[in-house]
Amino acid sequence: MGMNQERLMQVILAPIVSEKSTMIAEKTQQVAFRVATDATKGEIKAAVELLFNVKVAGVSTVSVKGKVKRFGRTMGRRKDTKKAYVSLVPGQEFDLTATAAE
């Protein structure tokens, strides 16, 4: 793919570590990431393959609307975010701690 490597480094913001994402990871070989709101599925796939050296079977994305929160006496709104659930090819292992240590 002729995608800009610099852009791919900015696509994935953080892994989502929660009870729900951990349960999904164990059951279905999927990993959850918080990604840039303008990221496409193709970019997410390329970024995960580049950063973690794994083969990606598919990508599902979810746009999450920011909650309305109170800041002092004014009402404000949190930013909209985007989650990506990345499915791995069977037989692939995904270890966040090993790649973070490198």
From TrEMBL:
What does the record give under GO molecular function? rRNA binding; structural constituent of ribosome
Q: Which GO terms describe its biological process?
A: translation
Report whether RNA-binding shows up as a keyword of the record. yes
Q: Name one GO cellular component term.
A: ribonucleoprotein complex
InterPro entries hit by this protein? Nucleotide-bd_a/b_plait_sf, Ribosomal_uL23-like, Ribosomal_uL23/eL15/eS24_sf
Its keywords, alphabetically, are: Ribonucleoprotein, Ribosomal protein, RNA-binding, rRNA-binding
Q: Which family is this sequence assigned to?
A: Belongs to the universal ribosomal protein uL23 family.
Query: What does the record note on quaternary structure?
Result: Part of the 50S ribosomal subunit. Contacts protein L29, and trigger factor when it is bound to the ribosome.
User: What is the documented function of this protein?
Assistant: One of the early assembly proteins it binds 23S rRNA. One of the proteins that surrounds the polypeptide exit tunnel on the outside of the ribosome. Forms the main docking site for trigger factor binding to the ribosome.
- What is the protein name given in its UniProt record? Large ribosomal subunit protein uL23
Organism in which the protein naturally occurs: Crenobacter caeni
